[in-house]
Hints:
By secondary structure, this protein is mostly helical. 44% of the residues lie in helices and 5% in strands.
Amino acid sequence: MTHVVAGNVMVGCSRRGTREGRSHALAVLHEVLAWEMAVTRCGYGRLRDMSTPSERIFAQPEDGTELRDFLSPQARHPMTLARTADRIADGVALREAVADFIDDLRWARDHDDVTRRIAERPRDVDPRTDAYLGALAEHVAAERALAAPVWSIEAGRFLARTWWPRYPGLWARAIVESPAAFRRRGILLDAGMLSRV
């Protein structure tokens, strides 16, 4: 785990000790500090009295100003699906790489930023990963009322056999909770796989 510390903020990154891990941790730290500075610049009443960065980051200014109004229009090093596929091909587990993508997607500035993160065609890794990334791109686009990227509906982005969760006890839940983009590709998963705390 790579950790970068500045002031009261510490960012951890699961890319253990690698140059990419340190670079990603620094990029995330930059985003966190940008949010904190934006909150500080708002300067409304109770924001100054909050002691932790997360309290200040997620506080709502009283005049309706959003913190996004103070951020640069484009993230410095956004995690894209193409980079996610590269990480998976380099040996990072699918679940971990997708979790990092979903975490980073929360920092997307607007629909154009989201589109840039899913537009580039990821490299082919293996049939399951290719289908999963195609489903993820379509799901992210549908959630934000965007057009799905053309590469996400290529023939190689669909599975011939259903990919069930590892534990049979989760199968019924997966049938009910799988987003449409995943179900139509033969991937059944519970909704918790696509959300982060």
